[in-house]
Amino acid sequence: MTDAPARPHWLPLLVVGVIGGVLSGAFGVGGGIVMVPLLIWLTGMDQRTASATSLAAILPSVVVGSIGYLLRGQVDLGAAIALAVGAVPGALIGTWLLRRINIGLLRWLFIALMVVIAVRMVLIPVERGERIEETWWVLALLFVVGVVTGIASGLFGVGGGVIMVPVLVVGFGVGDLVAKGTSLVAMIASSAVGTTSNLRARAVDLRSALFVGIAATLCSYLGVLLAFVMTPQVSSILFAALLLLSAGQLSVRTIRRGRADRRARAADAAAEPA
């Protein structure tokens, strides 16, 4: 009879939640880019369980962070809805494609794009307070951005906020606070859909998600306050660092997956009869 896997201690789970919650509120991202590797490192979770648990835990903190930005008038609801409507089917398309295509080259192109965007955010000043002109074609374009964001999230395992915020700032000239608030509101729907799917598949460690989620939710509003204290320049530099961190993590996963694929092909070739 095999022993049941040990449950993670509550203290590292709270640490993960605090970090994820502050990042969520301060930068308009889900926090998974840091929470997933921390869950793997500090608690010994496998990649799939860590990703599913992180998504479930961050959902309430995304809601709290969204409320914080809404109360300060730093959310473009029309843009958020357009992004969310596109992101949900986009994520489903991305996860479907993940099982059917070789995306090695696509991963490296996406990594290069993230690095370019990070450099762009540092070099080009951000004007705080700029908003989106909500014409029908702009909303249609935001819907397309949502679809692309969802597909990228499904394919590469990168959270939607890491894509939405720089696209809104760099592509649409939106102020950093509006971009963060709009991104958080847009992520509510996609996070809820993803969490529901993971719960049905029993991929979530509910006890760990509860500890992480409580800490993340309590600290999310602290992150929102931090966002309003930071200058646009400091915010851009720190967000660029977060993008580079995301690119680095994705690079490591891509290299490891490539090595695993080569070993599998070598094993298959060795097993073939002469």
UniProtKB/TrEMBL annotation:
<dbReference type="InterPro" id="IPR002781">
    <property type="entry name" value="TM_pro_TauE-like"/>
</dbReference>
<feature type="transmembrane region" description="Helical">
    <location>
        <begin position="236"/>
        <end position="255"/>
    </location>
</feature>
<comment type="similarity">
    <text>Belongs to the 4-toluene sulfonate uptake permease (TSUP) (TC 2.A.102) family.</text>
</comment>
<dbReference type="InterPro" id="IPR051598">
    <property type="entry name" value="TSUP/Inactive_protease-like"/>
</dbReference>
<dbReference type="GO" id="GO:0005886">
    <property type="term" value="C:plasma membrane"/>
</dbReference>
<feature type="transmembrane region" description="Helical">
    <location>
        <begin position="12"/>
        <end position="40"/>
    </location>
</feature>
<keyword id="KW-1133">Transmembrane helix</keyword>
<feature type="transmembrane region" description="Helical">
    <location>
        <begin position="209"/>
        <end position="230"/>
    </location>
</feature>
<protein>
    <recommendedName>
        <fullName>Probable membrane transporter protein</fullName>
    </recommendedName>
</protein>
<dbReference type="Pfam" id="PF01925">
    <property type="entry name" value="TauE"/>
</dbReference>
<feature type="transmembrane region" description="Helical">
    <location>
        <begin position="52"/>
        <end position="71"/>
    </location>
</feature>
<keyword id="KW-1003">Cell membrane</keyword>
<keyword id="KW-0472">Membrane</keyword>
<feature type="transmembrane region" description="Helical">
    <location>
        <begin position="136"/>
        <end position="158"/>
    </location>
</feature>
<feature type="transmembrane region" description="Helical">
    <location>
        <begin position="105"/>
        <end position="124"/>
    </location>
</feature>
<feature type="transmembrane region" description="Helical">
    <location>
        <begin position="77"/>
        <end position="98"/>
    </location>
</feature>
<keyword id="KW-0812">Transmembrane</keyword>
